[in-house]
Amino acid sequence: MFGQIEEYFRTSLDRWTGMLAAHVEVSLLALAIAAALAVPAGILCARYERLKGPLTGLFGALRVVPSLAILLLMLPVLGTGTAPAAVALVLLAVPPVLMNTVAGLESVPAPVLETAAAMGMEERQIWQKVRLPLAMPMILAGLKTAAVEIVASAALAAKIGAGGLGELIFTGIGLFRTDLLLIGGGSVALLSLLTGVLFELLDKLLLKYKNV
Amino acid sequence: MINYLVRYYDRLLTALLEHLEIVLLAMVFSVILAAGLTLLCQFSRRFARLLVHGLSVLYSVPSLALLALLIPLTGLGKTTAVIVLVLYNQYLLLRNILAGLDQVDPGVVEAATGMGMTRWQLLRQIKLPLARKAVIAGLRIALVSTVSIATIAAAINAGGLGTVLFDGLRTMNTAKILWGSLLSAALALGADRLLALAERKTE
User: Fold this and answer.
1) CATH assignment of A21-165, among 1.10.3720.10, 3.90.180.10, 3.40.190.10, 1.20.1540.10
2) Between B61, B68, B162, which is nearest A184 by CB?
3) What ipTM was reported for this prediction?
4) Would an 8 Å CB–CB cutoff place B148 in contact with chain A?
């Protein structure tokens, strides 16, 4: 068993790194797009009460739909490849970021906002210097959830031709090759755990004031 | 799409029933195991913390990866799928149950202890009834996640609606993909609504 795994890494290391790179690439792309869409949308929801109901309702329902269904639904619409996979991953990642942004912005205590206004801050300053920074921990937590979800679903995206480490797993299942299953499953699992750890480090780094 | 439904409705129905079977099996085992673990957690707070932390690490392992890693141990098929689903649910259930039990008003707990209740009585007659909202919330999340992950389990021949999806993908049959997606999404949304109703009833 370990001999086989060692053999794989000796002969096909560049294929493995290629799949790893494809996995990380599509994940980062999806996370960046999702953040660029969901954080502003969350700010709009917190600002305009009328938007909040429909938007959170829609994405709340989207969150419940199985990820495999969302991925495969892209196929008739956009075909195979990295692009449909990225679109599906964005759809999966938007709900947690959006919900956490709204919740974070709304959980800022009213007295704090009132104090900021009383200190002579303008609406814009209050958002930039008080409300957003105080909502940051929640937004970051949403991004972490989204990132872990993306890494997991990107493994499934191998089925619609997006490449990535999921290919190893599906090949392993198809050929019943234990070594491929262990390498593929282990790599995806480690990548996912690493993503979680990275976000925890980011949280510590960006939000030092929390631990003072 | 309608043609497909008319011609193959029995296949879709079989897949749906198979899916329900996996989900129900997984939920039953999950609840039994979670109940046992909750009891164990009553003895030591440190054990509870360690257990939930360990389960959270396990939970963050992607389902396809966990399925792949378990194949060498338990083989292809339903057994492996149910094991994976039960493992994931332990985190969702225990996190909610333990948080719910901890949120019970300390004054109430003290009063119950003062009345001479044993730890077992306290749990069964005071803490659990007061925490039932959190318990049902945990069940709701677990059920929706089980429905969702069970589709992925079709990749290892566990059957269910995922089979329709993967078959549709292999043969590039759009009607099949649409029906598989539609049914699994409807099942997940239905399960979510059902337990949301139960959650509201407990208030």
Assistant:
1) 1.10.3720.10
2) B68
3) 0.84
4) yes
